[in-house]
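just leaving the lab so this will be short. what follows is a protein written twice so to speak, once as letters and once as structure tokens for the fold. can you read through it and tell me how you think this chain folds. thanks a lot i owe you, the record is right below.

___
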Amino acid sequence: MITGAGKRRLGFETAKYLGECGYSIALHFNKSQVEAQQSLVELIESGITARSFQADITSQSEIEQLGTAVKSEMGSIDGLVTTASIWEPTPINKISDGISQQIQVNAIGTIHCCQIIGLMMSEQPSGGSIITVGDWAVEQPYENHVGYFAAKGAVVAATRSLAVDLASLNPKIRVNCINPGPVLFPDRFDQKTRDRIQQETLLKHVDDPTAFAETVEFFLRNKMATGQVINIDSGRGLSRHSPTAREQ
């Protein structure tokens, strides 16, 4: 189950990669129904077993209904990837304009998904694997995004707590976090911006969502990793350059 995978962004690219690896995909979306249907058709035409499900992850009752529907139609939920997210600037003099929604979706919505699906996993003998999504720039935040980074920082911290609590219910449940960097450029980035970001990384390798998806699969398969946070950022967090724009 991959939240926020209806649009052709990181969630969809991860769904496609995992589907090609043999996983059955529960494609979650909220408002992007048309795009989600197009994404679902593409997956199915590629020979991937997939279904789409709608839910507002800011509603606990809708998350519960989502989990029930996925389990009913697909048999079990063995993995959860929380790519659902929003990103809007929150300038320091206008924090109140958008911080609540970003925390509600990016942090609380993610945590409730992990809670509700994790409790379902606790009843499965095989347990399950949960992969949350933070952001590499939590440690090097750029300006005018207090709301976004407050929320993503909470996801990183909650990942470790969730790993402890869910393992106490079923030791076969693992919870890990990926902090992506410039793994998938927005269409709005011009070539100059793309080149600049590439030069600001150590590895000079960017715009590669497969790198993120491969890390998701690692956490799905690995039986000894839990409570871990890994940056997939081509070493940008170690570079001397100050971040100035979002790359996800």
About this structure: The CA atoms of residues 147 and 184 lie 22 Å apart. Residues 2-238 form a domain with the Rossmann fold fold (CATH 3.40.50.720). Helices lie at 10-20, 33-45, 60-74, 99-122, 146-169, 191-199, 209-221. Strands lie at 2-3, 25-29, 50-54, 79-82, 128-133, 173-180, 229-232.
